[in-house]
C-alpha cells in the first residue's frame, strides 16, 4: 500500500493516480476525513495521557502536603481524564482499522514516466526482436489447437471430461515439450543468479493480501472449501494464481540485512485462475486456461537499485525467447492498463502465426503475452511487512519488490507449435530444448488411442 505520509502530504498526487488508473470505487475525500479524525484523536490522546500523568504526579504531592481537598479534586480529574482517554482510544482504534482497510483499496501510484493512457490501446511498443530473419513458414499455418489434436499431443475433449472447460491434457511429445520448456527456463535463470524455490501451492488469505491480489480480486481465485464462513481470513487457503504470491511472502514480516540484498528467487508452479476463458475466441486451445505452468522470478532489492534491476529483469525474461529464436515485442503499459499493484510494467509478447485474431505483424498471426515484468516499489513490502536494515545501527526501511514471468509455458508452447511448424505438419524442436527431450529434433505426433467415446457410435 502507499504510505500514510504520501496520503497526508500528496493527496492530489494520489487523486491523480486514481484517475490515471481508472479507479472509480475509491472515495479519497472520505478516506482523508477518516485520516484527519484519526490523527486528531491520536493527538488528543497524547495530550490526555500527558495531563493524566501530570495530575497523577501531583496527587501524591498534595497528599503529602496535607491538601486533601485539592488531592480529591485531582483524583476526580484523573478519573475524568481516564474515562475520556478510553473513549478516544476506542474511537481511534476503530478509525485505525477502517483506515487500514480503506487504504488497501488505493492502488500503487504510477511512476512519473509511465505513459498516460486510458486502456491497452494506448500501451507503447518499445521494440521488436527476431523479425529480421524469420524462418520459412507453411503457406497456411495450422493453429496450435488443431495441430495439437492432429498430432495427438494436446487433448481438449478429455481435459473437459475430467475437469471441465478451460483444462487440457498435454500428451506424449506435448507433455515432454512442457517439461522441457520448464527445465530450460529454470536452468537459464539459475545461470543468471536465481535461487530455486519450490513453493506450497495453497496460500492463505494473508499471503494474497500481501502481494495485492486481495481484497480486490477474490473473484478470480480458486478457494479451497473448508469450515470457514467468512469471505476470507488468515486460515483460508486458496490455489495460487502465480508463484509471485508464496515467494514474495517468503520474507513476510521479516527484517532483512543489507548484505542479504539483492535477493533473486525463481519458482516453478502450476497456477490457477478463474478469469481464464472470458475472451471469446481465446477459449479455444491453451492460450487462456484455468490451470497453467509458469516459472516466476521475484526480486527483493534496495530502493536505489530498483530501476536498474527492473531493466535487468526485463533482459532476463526475454533471454529465453531469444535463445528459442521466437520473435517477440516489448510493450510498456500505460496508466490505464497498469495493474493495481504496479508502479511500472512491461509486457513481453511472443508472436504466434497460426491465428489472425489480433493485429499482428505484417505476416498475420497474433501476439501472446508470455511475461509481465513489474516494479512494485515498496507497495507490496508495506502490505507484507518486508523491511531491511541498511546498517546495524539504523532504522529498518521498506525494500522494493519486483517480479517477472520467466515465462508462461503454455503460450510459449503455442508459439513453438505454430512458428516451428513444417509443411508436413511436424514441428521442429528448438535447439535449446533438444537436450531436455533426449536429443529429439522433430515432433511427429502419434496415432490417437481408441475409436469413439462410448455412446457416440
UniProtKB/TrEMBL annotation:
Annotated spans, Disordered: 47-81, 109-128
Keywords: Aminoacyl-tRNA synthetase, ATP-binding, Cytoplasm, Ligase, Nucleotide-binding, Protein biosynthesis
Main location as per UniProt: cytoplasm
Annotated positions binding ATP: 273-275, 289-292, 369-372
Pathway this chain belongs to: Aminoacyl-tRNA biosynthesis; selenocysteinyl-tRNA(Sec) biosynthesis; L-seryl-tRNA(Sec) from L-serine and tRNA(Sec): step 1/1
Enzyme class: ligase
Binding residue positions for L-serine: 242-244, 273, 296, 403, 405
Biased composition (Basic and acidic residues): 113-128
EC number: 6.1.1.11
Domain Aminoacyl-transfer RNA synthetases class-II family profile: 140-430
Catalytic activity line of the entry: tRNA(Sec) + L-serine + ATP = L-seryl-tRNA(Sec) + AMP + diphosphate + H(+); tRNA(Ser) + L-serine + ATP = L-seryl-tRNA(Ser) + AMP + diphosphate + H(+)
Cross-referenced InterPro entries: aa-tRNA-synt_IIb, aa-tRNA-synth_II, aa-tRNA-synth_II/BPL/LPL, Ser-tRNA-ligase_type_1, Ser-tRNA-synth_1_N, SerRS_1_N_sf, SerRS_core, tRNA-bd_arm
Molecular function (Gene Ontology), one example: serine-tRNA ligase activity
Pfam short name (any one): Seryl_tRNA_N
Subcellular location as annotated: Cytoplasm
BP GO annotations: selenocysteine biosynthetic process; seryl-tRNA aminoacylation
Gene3D superfamilies, per the entry: Bira Bifunctional Protein, Domain 2, Serine-tRNA synthetase, tRNA binding domain
GO-annotated cellular components: cytoplasm
Record function comment: Catalyzes the attachment of serine to tRNA(Ser). Is also able to aminoacylate tRNA(Sec) with serine, to form the misacylated tRNA L-seryl-tRNA(Sec), which will be further converted into selenocysteinyl-tRNA(Sec).
Subunit structure as annotated in this protein's UniProt entry: Homodimer. The tRNA molecule binds across the dimer.
UniProt record similarity statement: Belongs to the class-II aminoacyl-tRNA synthetase family. Type-1 seryl-tRNA synthetase subfamily.
Domain comment, as recorded: Consists of two distinct domains, a catalytic core and a N-terminal extension that is involved in tRNA binding.
This protein's name: Serine--tRNA ligase
Protein source organism: Halolamina salifodinae
Originating gene: serS
Amino acid at each position: 500500500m502507499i504510505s500514510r505520509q504520501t496520503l497526508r502530504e500528496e493527496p492530489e498526487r494520489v487523486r491523480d493516480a486514481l484517475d490515471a488508473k481508472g479507479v472509480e470505487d475509491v472515495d479519497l475525500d472520505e478516506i482523508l476525513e477518516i485520516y484527519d479524525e484519526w490523527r486528531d484523536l491520536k493527538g488528543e490522546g497524547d495530550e490526555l495521557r500527558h495531563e493524566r500523568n501530570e495530575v497523577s504526579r501531583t496527587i501524591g504531592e498534595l497528599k503529602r502536603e496535607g491538601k486533601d481537598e485539592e488531592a480529591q479534586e485531582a483524583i476526580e480529574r484523573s478519573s475524568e481524564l481516564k474515562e475520556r482517554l478510553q473513549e478516544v482510544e476506542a474511537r481511534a482504534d476503530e478509525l485505525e482499522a477502517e483506515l487500514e482497510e480503506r487504504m488497501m483499496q488505493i492502488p500503487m501510484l504510477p511512476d512519473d514516466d509511465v505513459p498516460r493512457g486510458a486502456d491497452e490501446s494506448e500501451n507503447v511498443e518499445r521494440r521488436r526482436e527476431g523479425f529480421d530473419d524469420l524462418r520459412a513458414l507453411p503457406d497456411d499455418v495450422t493453429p496450435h489447437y488443431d495441430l495439437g489434436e492432429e498430432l495427438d499431443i494436446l487433448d481438449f475433449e478429455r481435459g473437459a471430461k475430467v475437469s471441465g472447460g478451460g483444462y487440457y491434457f498435454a500428451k506424449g511429445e506435448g507433455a515432454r515439450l512442457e517439461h522441457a520448456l520448464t527445465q530450460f527456463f529454470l536452468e537459464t535463470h539459475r545461470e543468471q543468479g536465481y535461487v530455486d524455490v519450490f513453493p506450497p501451492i495453497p496460500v492463505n488469505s494473508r499471503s494474497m493480501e500481501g502481494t495485492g491480489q486481495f481484497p480486490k480480486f477474490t473473484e478470480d481465485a480458486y478457494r479451497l472449501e473448508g469450515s470457514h464462513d467468512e469471505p476470507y481470513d488468515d486460515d483460508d487457503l486458496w490455489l495460487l494464481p502465480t508463484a509471485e504470491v508464496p515467494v514474495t511472502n517468503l520474507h513476510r514480516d521479516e527484517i532483512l540485512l543489507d548484505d542479504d540484498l539483492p535477493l533473486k528467487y525463481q519458482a516453478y508452479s502450476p497456477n490457477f485462475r478463474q478469469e481464464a476463458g472470458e475472451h471469446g475466441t481465446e477459449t479455444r486451445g491453451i492460450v487462456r486456461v484455468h490451470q497453467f505452468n509458469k516459472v516466476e522470478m521475484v526480486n527483493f532489492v534496495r530502493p536505489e537499485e530498483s530501476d536498474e534491476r527492473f531493466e535487468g529483469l526485463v533482459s532476463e525474461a526475454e533471454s529465453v525467447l531469444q535463445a528459442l529464436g521466437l520473435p517477440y515485442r516489448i510493450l510498456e503499459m500505460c496508466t490505464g492498463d497498469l495493474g493495481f499493484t504496479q508502479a511500472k510494467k512491461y509486457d513481453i509478447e511472443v508472436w504466434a502465426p497460426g491465428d489472425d485474431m489480433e493485429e499482428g505483424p505484417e505476416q498475420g498471426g497474433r501476439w501472446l503475452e508470455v511475461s509481465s515484468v513489474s516494479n512494485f516499489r515498496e507497495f507490496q513490502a508495506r502490505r507484507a511487512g518486508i523491511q531491511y536494515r541498511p546498517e546495524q545501527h539504523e532504522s529498518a526501511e521498506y525494500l522494493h519488490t519486483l517480479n517477472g514471468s520467466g515465462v508462461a509455458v503454455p503460450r510459449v508452447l503455442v508459439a513453438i507449435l505454430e512458428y516451428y511448424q513444417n509443411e508436413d505438419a511436424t514441428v521442429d524442436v528448438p535447439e535449446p530444448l533438444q537436450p531436455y527431450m533426449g536429443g529429439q529434433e522433430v515432433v511427429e505426433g502419434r496415432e490417437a488411442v481408441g475409436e469413439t467415446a462410448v455412446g457416440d457410435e
